[in-house]
Amino acid sequence: DKSAEVRKSAESSLGEIIRICGNEV
To answer: What InterPro entries does UniProt report for this protein, alphabetically (predicted)?
Structure first.
């Protein structure tokens, strides 16, 4: 399913951003 794939990639991108922000703080 395309929507599931897009959501998965979006979640992984969000996770990376959150992890980077957490490391900076």
So the answer is: HEAT_type_2
- What does the block give as tokens for 18? 């959150």
Q: What pLDDT, in 10s, does the model give residues 1-24?
A: 899 999 999 999 999 999 999 987
SS3 5: helix
Count of domains in the chain?
Answer: 1
The domain in which residue 6 lies consists of: 1-25
**How far is 16 from 13, CA to CA, in rounded Å?**
5
